[in-house]
C-alpha cells in the first residue's frame, strides 16, 4: 500500500498546482453602486462557489472583487453569479454524516450565488460549499427577494433507531415551488407530474423551473448562461504500444538482448470535468488492451511468449494551453494491469523442447505502473497523445526475470456533441 500512496503523490501535487493557473475570460462586474466594469475574469474550476474573483481591467491592472464590492459578475457565455446576503442552512444532508434530530441551524452570510435560470415566474440559483449543495429561488413578480429552497434529512429518534437507519426527509422545497406556481396560477396536472418524485438536484429543479417559466429548449438557451452542462464525456481510440522487454538470468546478468515489440492498442474511457465550461482540470478512467510479443536466444536456448495486457488507469490531466479549438495537456495516472500469457516456449537452440522442470516462466498476473502522458486536443474531438509507463517486472523466478517498459502513442475520438 505504501508503494501505491507514494506513486499517487505526484498526481495530488499536480492537481494542487493546476488550481494556481490563470484563465482570464471576457466578462464584466457590477459594483454595489450599480456601475458596470468591463474586463476579464480569472475563470477557475471553482469546485465551490467563489468568495472572490480576480478581475483584469483593459489597462492590464488586476484587482480582487468580493461581495463587499460587487453585486453581480458575468463571464461571457459561461457563468453568471449574483450577490446574496441572508441565511444559509448548515444542516448535513449526506446520509453518511447526518446526526440524530432535526437541525435548523444557519448563518447569515454574504456570498455569490450561481445563476441557473431567470424567468418571468421564478429565478433559480445554486450555492455549493464544503457542507452541501443548496438551491435558492426568487419571485420576479413580487419583491424578487432570494430564499433558500429547504431540504433536510435527519435521523428521527434515539440512538438505537439511528443504528437502524431510520431517517426523515423534509422536501420543503416542493411546497415552496408549489406556492410560487399557485401564486402565478400555473399549477396544472403537467407541472404537478413534473414535481412528483423530484429530487433535490440541479437537473430535477431545472426541469420544474423551466416548466414554470414556460420555456422551450430554445428559450432556455436565451435565459440562462450558455455554458455546457456536460460534466463528462466518453472517448475511444486506437494507437500503438511499444514495449521493451529485458531479461536477467539467475546470476543477475543480462540474458540475451532486449526485445522490442510494437503492436496495436485499443482504449475506451471517460473524462469527468471539474468545471464543464472551462474543461481545464480533468479526471479520467481508461480501459485499454494491447498485445506484446517476446522472443530471445541465450546460451543455446530460445524462449518466447505472447502477452495480452488489459489495464485500468485513473488519471488527472490539466490543460496548460486551453484554447477553444486547440488544447495542450499533461497527465499523471496510475495503471493497474492484468497479464495473460500464452504461446510460452522454452526450447534448445535446435528447437528441441527442454524438460518441464526447466521452464522458467513464473509470470506475474497483475502489476501496476505510474503513467505520464502529454497530448493535444484538436477541435474538441481529436486527442493525440504520447504516454510513458514506468518499468515493471513481469516475471521473477530462480532462472529468469523479465522487466518491461512501455510507451503508447495514439489518437482518441471524443464521443458526443461538444459545446
Entry keywords:
elongated; eight-stranded antiparallel barrel; 14% helix; disordered N terminus; mainly beta; 2 domains; ten-stranded antiparallel beta sheet; 419 residues; Porin
State the gist of this model.
The chain has 419 residues and is mainly beta. It has six helices and 20 strands. It starts with a helix and ends with a strand.
Query: Strand count, sense and closure of the main sheet?
Result: 10 strands, antiparallel
Structural class: mainly beta
- Annotated CATH topology of the largest domain: Porin
> On the 0-100 scale, what is the average pLDDT?
85
Shape estimate: elongated
Number of DSSP helical runs? 6
> In terms of per-residue confidence, which ranges show pLDDT below 50 for 5 or more consecutive residues?
1-19, 159-164
Describe, in plain words, how this protein is organized in 3D.
- The protein has 419 residues and is mainly β.
- It folds into two domains: 79-223, no CATH class; 232-415, Beta Barrel (Porin).
- Helices cover 14% and strands 52% of the residues.
- It contains six helices and 20 strands.
- It has helices spanning 2-18, 159-163, 172-183, 189-195, 202-213, 217-223; strands at 24-31, 36-42, 52-56, 62-66, 70-75, 79-89, 106-117, 123-128, 133-138, 146-149, 152-155, 167-170, 232-248, 259-273, 281-298, 301-322, 326-348, 366-378, 382-396, 401-415.
- Strands 4-3-2-1-5-6-7-8-9-10 form a ten-stranded antiparallel sheet. An eight-stranded antiparallel barrel has the order 13-14-15-16-17-18-19-20. The protein has a two-stranded antiparallel ribbon with strand order 11-12.
- Strand 9 and strand 10 form a beta hairpin.
- It is elongated and about 95 Å long.
- Mean pLDDT is 85; it is low at 1-19 and 159-164.
Amino acid at each position: 500500500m505504501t508503494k501505491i500512496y507514494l506513486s499517487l503523490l505526484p498526481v495530488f501535487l499536480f492537481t494542487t498546482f493546476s488550481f494556481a493557473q490563470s484563465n482570464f475570460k471576457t466578462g464584466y462586474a457590477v459594483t454595489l453602486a450599480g456601475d458596470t466594469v468591463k474586463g476579464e475574469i480569472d475563470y477557475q474550476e471553482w469546485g465551490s462557489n467563489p468568495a472572490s474573483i480576480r478581475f483584469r481591467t483593459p489597462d492590464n491592472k488586476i484587482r480582487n472583487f468580493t461581495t463587499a464590492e460587487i453585486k453581480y459578475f458575468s463571464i461571457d457565455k459561461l457563468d453568471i453569479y449574483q450577490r446574496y446576503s441572508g441565511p444559509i442552512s448548515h444542516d448535513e444532508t449526506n446520509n453518511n454524516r447526518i446526526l440524530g434530530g432535526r437541525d435548523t441551524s444557519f448563518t447569515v452570510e454574504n456570498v455569490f450565488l450561481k445563476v441557473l435560470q431567470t424567468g418571468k415566474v421564478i429565478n433559480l440559483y445554486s450555492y455549493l460549499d464544503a457542507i452541501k449543495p443548496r438551491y435558492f429561488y426568487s419571485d420576479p413578480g413580487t419583491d424578487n427577494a432570494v430564499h433558500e429552497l429547504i431540504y433536510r434529512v435527519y435521523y428521527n429518534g434515539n440512538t438505537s433507531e439511528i443504528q437502524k437507519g431510520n431517517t426523515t426527509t423534509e422536501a420543503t422545497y416542493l411546497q415552496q415551488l408549489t406556492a410560487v406556481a399557485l401564486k402565478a396560477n400555473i399549477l396544472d396536472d403537467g407541472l404537478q407530474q413534473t414535481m412528483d418524485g423530484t429530487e433535490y438536484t440541479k437537473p430535477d429543479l431545472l426541469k420544474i423551473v423551466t416548466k414554470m417559466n414556460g420555456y422551450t429548449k430554445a428559450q432556455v438557451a436565451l435565459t440562462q448562461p450558455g455554458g455546457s452542462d456536460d460534466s463528462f464525456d466518453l472517448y475511444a481510440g486506437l494507437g500503438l504500444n511499444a514495449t521493451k522487454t529485458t531479461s536477467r538470468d539467475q546470476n543477475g546478468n543480462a540474458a540475451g538482448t532486449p526485445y522490442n515489440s510494437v503492436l496495436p492498442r485499443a482504449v475506451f474511457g471517460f473524462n469527468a470535468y471539474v468545471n464543464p465550461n472551462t474543461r481545464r482540470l480533468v479526471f479520467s478512467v481508461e480501459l485499454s488492451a494491447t498485445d506484446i510479443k517476446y522472443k530471445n536466444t541465450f546460451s543455446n536456448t530460445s524462449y518466447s511468449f505472447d502477452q495480452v495486457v488489459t489495464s485500468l488507469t485513473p488519471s488527472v490531466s490539466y490543460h496548460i494551453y486551453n484554447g477553444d479549438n486547440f488544447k495542450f495537456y499533461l497527465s499523471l495516472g496510475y495503471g493497474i494491469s492484468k497479464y495473460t500469457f500464452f504461446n510460452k516456449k522454452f526450447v534448445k537452440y535446435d528447437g528441441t523442447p527442454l524438460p518441464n522442470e526447466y521452464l522458467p516462466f513464473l509470470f506475474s498476473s497483475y502489476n501496476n505502473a505510474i503513467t505520464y502522458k502529454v497530448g493535444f486536443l484538436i477541435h474538441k474531438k481529436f486527442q493525440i497523445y504520447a504516454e510513458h509507463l514506468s518499468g515493471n517486472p513481469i516475471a521473477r523466478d530462480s532462472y529468469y526475470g523479465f522487466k518491461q517498459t512501455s510507451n503508447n502513442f495514439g489518437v482518441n475520438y471524443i464521443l458526443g456533441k461538444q459545446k
